[in-house]
Every structure is written in structure tokens, then in C-alpha cells.
Design brief:
This protein is 26% helix and 21% strand. The chain is built from 2 helices and 8 strands; from the N terminus they run ααββββββββ. Strand 2 and strand 3 form a beta hairpin.
Length: 244
């Protein structure tokens, strides 16, 4: 039996591969313990108090600016919607007034106590009588300006003989946001009106009134576009015409 002789200094049980054998040479670093590279968390732990905190503050600042911008935009949208809604309301008020005023004044009649169809006329007010509810009775109808609002007062006659008591007047608001340009809402013209006739002068002689013009100017916000809205109409009082 042959025995293999251990190299000098080698112990039994240890590898006896010779480093001089070319086919058994270990690659460089082979057999040495290598450490795994540090994870991103391990690398960043030392930055939490510095760089990462700065990033967090910047992100919070950006978020705050975005929230402020969104809040301002939302507020402007609500304001614009409210403004547009009010402007539409004013336009509707103008249209309703013109339509109602024409119908009422055109069919004006003598009062229940025999008074003239028009009892008072001024540049910002007019009072006349009409069978408003088609019940055979004539109500006193009064349009007048109070501040920046055009109001309508309706008074029914009571008693025998019939009288119109101001305490019984029911008042409603008809048009809002009148401008200061509404110095003359109602203009009055005689039977000779031919389109360019000069209106009757104050004090108005109500017996001369055959045609009434109404012009109303409103503006939701004088400091914002699109500016004031103007609407106008004219009414020939049917029961006062000479050509019927």
C-alpha cells in the first residue's frame, strides 16, 4: 500500500491541494468572506435628520401652495356663479316687469269710486287703477322707487262708497339694483305723440297722458363687467285713446 506524504507543516484532514498546480489555482478573492452592500434604508438612516427632512419640508410647502391656489380658485368660481346668478335674476326681473306693466297699464280703468284711470304720475312713480284679478273690482296699482329697488303696491277698495286706504296696501319688490342713472323711469306723452314728441313736463297733467314710456337700468356690480343692463317699453292706455 502506498502512502501519500503530507507537505511539511500540513495537518492530517486539511486540504493538500498544491497552490503550484495550475489547474487547481483558486481565483483571486475566492474563499474570502464578502459583505453584502448596504441597503437604501441603511444608507439613508444617517440622512433622516438632514436631507430627508429638508425634502419633507419642501414637499409640505408645495402642498400648502397648491391648497391655497385650489382654495382661491374655488372661491372665485363660487363668486362668479353667484354673480352670474344675480345677473340672470335681474334680467328676469326686468322682463317680468315690462310684460306685467304693459298689460296692467294698457287696460287701466276708472277706479271703483269713479276716479280717473291715472291718479298720480311722476318721474319715478306712477299710480293707476286696473281690474288686476278679473273680479270686477279695480285695484289701485302703484309703482315707485325706494333706494335701489322698484316696488309695487296694490290696494283693494273697501267700504261703501269704495275707498282706497294706504294701510291696506300690499307691497312687493319688483326690480333690484337700480343704478343712479334712473332719475327718470316713467315718461309721459300726450295724444299727439308721433315718435319724437317731447315728454310732458313736471308737474304732469294726468289728463294729458295717453302714452307712458318706462326705462329701467340695473347693475349687479358697478365695479365689474359687463356693466349696466337697460330695458324699456312704452304703453298706450287703451281706454284713453281717441281713435277707438
Amino acid at each position: 500500500m502506498s502512502h501519500t506524504r503530507l507537505p511539511s507543516g500540513a495537518r492530517r484532514g486539511e486540504s493538500c491541494v498544491s497552490s503550484n498546480h495550475p489547474s487547481l489555482t483558486l481565483p483571486e478573492g475566492e474563499g474570502k468572506t464578502q459583505k453584502n452592500p448596504p441597503s437604501p434604508w441603511e444608507r439613508g438612516r444617517g440622512e433622516v435628520g438632514g436631507f430627508v427632512l429638508a425634502e419633507l419640508l419642501v414637499a409640505l410647502a408645495i402642498l400648502a401652495f397648491i391648497m391655497i391656489g385650489v382654495g382661491a380658485l374655488t372661491s372665485n368660481i363660487f363668486k362668479l356663479q353667484a354673480y352670474n346668478s344675480e345677473a340672470m335674476t335681474e334680467t328676469d326681473e326686468l322682463r317680468r316687469f315690462m310684460k306685467t306693466f304693459v298689460a296692467e297699464l294698457r287696460s287701466a280703468e276708472t277706479s271703483d269710486n269713479g276716479g280717473y284711470s291715472i291718479s298720480a304720475a311722476a318721474s319715478t312713480s306712477i299710480t293707476f287703477y286696473d281690474d288686476l284679478y278679473n273680479d270686477g273690482k279695480r285695484e289701485q296699482i302703484r309703482y315707485y322707487v325706494s333706494g335701489t329697488t322698484l316696488n309695487k303696491g296694490v290696494t283693494a277698495s273697501t267700504g261703501v262708497p269704495p275707498v282706497y286706504t294706504s294701510a291696506n296696501e300690499t307691497i312687493s319688490e319688483v326690480i333690484h339694483n337700480l343704478t343712479s342713472a334712473n332719475t327718470t323711469i316713467f315718461s309721459y306723452y300726450p295724444a299727439t305723440y308721433a315718435g319724437t314728441t317731447t315728454p310732458l313736463t313736471v308737474p304732469i297733467d294726468i289728463a294729458q297722458i295717453h302714452l307712458v314710456k318706462a326705462q329701467v337700468i340695473v347693475d349687479t356690480d358697478p365695479n365689474r363687467a359687463p356693466g349696466p343692463v337697460t330695458d324699456s317699453t312704452q304703453v298706450s292706455i287703451r281706454n284713453l285713446k281717441d281713435n277707438l
